[in-house]
Prior knowledge:
The chain is α+β, with helices and mostly antiparallel strands. 35% of the residues lie in helices and 23% in strands.
Amino acid sequence: MNRLDRFFEKIEQIGVDVALVYNVEYTSKPSTYYLSGFTGSFSILVLNRDKQFIITDSRYFEQAKQQTKFQLIEYRNGDLFENIKTVVEEFKPKTIGLEFQRVSHNVFLKISEKIKANFIPIDSVMESMRSVKEPQEIENIRKAISISEKAFLKTIESIKENVTEKEIAAEFEYNMKKFGADGTAFETIVISGPRTSLPHGRPSHKKILPGEPITFDFGAVVNGYCADITRTIFFGKPDDEFKKIYQTVYEAQTLALNGGSARMKGKSVDALARNHIIQKGYGQYFGHGLGHGIGLEVHESPRVNSTNEELLPESAVVTIEPGIYIEGKYGVRIEEDVLVKRDSLEKLTNLSRELMVI
Length: 358
Ligand SMILES: [Mn+2]
């Protein structure tokens, strides 16, 4: 069954007569792209099994015709919500499916004032569909990973004393684009020395000095699909404590990579890595979840954390990224992207996981 048919089946099961995907200033770009192929910043999809419409404005008339088979409704001016109402009323719906997490309270009030119907959330329909990847989606993620890794290896070649984190990050992003990325999944993280204890620190004007770790968290985007990879490397000669921390993170990651599968709950895979870090005495320094889904968004379902009671779905792509962060000292994170299989996790990342010393 194709993607749209599966979507229609799922929304019909929860009693939705027509779905409305509201995307203004990219508020629902991933779902819009997933369902229709349209990538613009402004669109409203109105669809069920019988009819599929896309409302957009003159910036995107031509693009919409190229990217989607949905029937184009040209929005020219006047009240947008009146326009939406006219299209929705063609369906005479009693119930309307809406992504509750993607509309502001204000937009919800405007839509629900104009259109009298029951509104049903379809967020979990989108999440569960998107978490199970089709072969073409996995292929796009593989390409994004490959470009990210090439750019990483290229960028670290040119690291010298006294270059700044910002300079390295800029070069890294340039390299990703040069190697074919459509963009970056998030602002590339390059942090060094004591700043590596910030799990999501931003690149600063700090200069790289000998005897310091450097953490890179990076991901290219290809055809809308994100990679998400982290490496902590060492510039100069690492001390024994750093090596011990790196080894602990490495072993924790190995346990999860070797032990995870679609037979396990998200929280059980998290525990494989977390218990090891706790045993080694660093439990308090690993505050975040072990991983998350990646796809059209860099953080999506399923979650690999201590609260996810669900089995990991087969064909999900998730990160496995344990870390230890000691304030005032340094931090280490190693992040792989893996495909969830019935009995195992298939590593999609190819970079060495060993401590790299430059
Ligand atoms: Mn991540």
